[in-house]
Design brief:
This protein is an alpha/beta fold and 436 residues long. It has helices at 55-59, 93-99, 119-132, 145-157, 171-178, 191-204, 215-220, 223-232, 249-263, 284-290, 316-325, 335-349, 355-370, 408-418, 426-431, and strands at 14-18, 24-26, 40-44, 89-91, 104-108, 137-141, 160-166, 183-187, 208-209, 240-244, 273-279, 329-333, 379-383. It has a six-stranded mixed beta sheet with strand order 4-5-13-10-11-12, sandwiched between helices. The longest helix has 16 residues, at 355-370. The N and C termini lie far apart (74 Å). The structure holds pyridoxal-5'-phosphate and zinc ion.
């Protein structure tokens, strides 16, 4: 392999290690252990940063994922370019009231910079490594959001991009890839077939495929969701995290982030339970958890929640194990419940999420009503993508309004026919003492 290279971050040493047999591989574009085919994981010598990474040094960093640069696998020479991440963590009182939680928060990656999903985080870390390994062409196999993030950031960095995606993705996600000048290859098949093809391509071409040969580095970018949650809670851990699952990577990495913060003494140790969310039509990880198993039975996806439609999830077994070890659970919801989830989050909190967020919101409702999540426990719901990319899911949900003539009398007649209570005249407002 011509790309062999070993490097160190300025403060942290890290390298790839096999999750199963423990063999180490240095740093190179490689996703699975050649001996046992298990996924490789980036492992750090955390001792080398203890005391140097503190709450204060992090607070002095930029308002982006790069405030945690010392805890990410990027080379010492790496200069961050884009201010990715550091999205809002908002208290969700209205949704909490509806669902029966007094302590509910939303981590809002629907507004992640630059392409409105948490995939911006993973792509940043992957492309830093693509450049370090000397790749000039990058790409990915994508369920949509990864395509957008890879295309946008490759454009910014001057890398060529070739993106493979199932041909029947949402139109907005396809357009959102093409617009950056990336070569989009629509594949007549589902995501799992696209991904298998990408594995063959990675073996043949010297391309940096962010979720294939760069996958161990890519996956580490998801840890930043966990660091941010802890910091935004005032350097505390929540009781529960509810997280959508496709490949099963994000949920594991939030857990890994919390473990690292505990190991570094940045937060007090406490048990955090992890809850996974999938659409019923593609729920291999949920089914494993419900059986008390970590054996993933691959499925053929049958859901409009495209961003989570991975039938054979790469990190599914490890995610199922972690969920059970933390005392958590996993649930799946129908597409109808998913759409209600989108609607409730929008109406209650003013956050328009995509299908994955609808699944996560609906699963949170289910977990609260089952009593698996307690009313007073601090619960963080991870909203990972933006609703403007999956407007197809709301097709036919709202009748198109008649056009009203631009006259006050027409307007009043129209509004009275729907919502008489909406009308309050200036005079009434004055009587109520509302003018000043
Ligand atoms: C990719 C994706 C996920 C799931 O991520 P995994 O790490 O593969 O489990 C969740 N939500 C959205 C919007 C995504 O695009
Ligand atoms: Zn191995």
């Amino acid at each position: 392999m011509p790309f062999l290279s070993v490097y160190e971050c300025s403060t942290t040493k890290y390298e790839l290690r096999c999750n199963e047999c423990g063999k180490v591989y240095g740093n190179r574009p490689l996703s699975a252990c050649p001996d046992c085919l298990a996924p490789l994981e980036v492992c750090y010598e955390l001792e080398s940063v203890r005391g140097r990474v503190t709450r204060a040094t992090i607070a002095r960093g930029p308002a982006s994922i790069w405030r945690y640069q010392d805890l990410l696998p990027v080379p010492a020479a790496f200069q961050p370019d884009l201010g990715v991440g550091f999205t809002p963590l908002v208290r969700a009182c209205n949704l909490g009231r509806r669902l029966g939680s007094e302590n509910l928060y939303v981590k809002n990656d629907a507004v992640c910079f630059p392409t409105l999903s948490f995939k911006d985080r993973v792509v940043s870390v992957a492309l830093a490594n693509a450049q370090a390994f000397g790749f000039t062409t990058v790409g990915c196999s994508s369920t949509g959001n990864l395509a957008n993030a890879t295309a946008a950031q490759a454009a910014r960095l001057g890398l060529k991009a070739c993106i493979l995606a199932p041909s029947d993705l949402e139109a907005a996600k396809l357009l959102n890839t093409r617009v950056y000048g990336a070569r989009l290859v629509r594949i007549a098949g589902n995501y799992d077939q696209v991904n298998r093809l990408c594995t063959l391509i990675a073996d043949e071409y010297s391309w940096g495929l962010v979720n294939v040969n760069l996958r161990p580095y890519y996956a580490e970018g998801s840890k930043t969701v966990g660091y941010e949650i802890a910091e935004q809670l005032g350097w505390r851990l929540p009781d529960n995290v509810v997280c959508p699952m496709a490949g099963g990577s994000l949920i594991r990495k939030i857990h890994k982030a919390f473990q690292e913060l505990i190991a570094l003494g940045l937060v007090e140790a406490k048990p955090v339970r992890f809850f996974g969310a999938q659409a019923t039509g593609c729920s291999p990880i949920v089914q494993a958890v419900k059986k008390g198993s970590d054996c993933i039975e691959p499925q053929r996806p049958e859901t409009i929640t495209r961003s989570l439609a991975i039938g054979n999830p790469a990190d599914g077994a490890a995610a199922a194990r972690m969920i059970q070890e933390t005392g958590g659970w996993a649930e799946d919801v129908s597409d109808v419940e998913m759409v209600s989830g989108i609607q409730e989050l929008a109406e209650d909190e003013g956050i328009f999420t995509e299908t994955a967020g609808g699944v996560t919101t609906a699963v949170t409702a289910r977990l609260l009503s089952q009593g698996r999540i307690g009313r007073e426990e601090l619960t963080v719901v991870c909203i990972t993508g933006n609703g403007l990319k999956t407007t197809d899911a709301l097709q036919g949900r709202f009748a198109e309004e008649d056009a009203v003539r631009p006259r006050l009398s027409d307007f009043e007649q129209y509004i009275r026919s729907f919502e008489p209570g909406l009308i309050s005249h200036q005079a009434e407002l004055e009587l109520a003492g509302g003018l000043y």
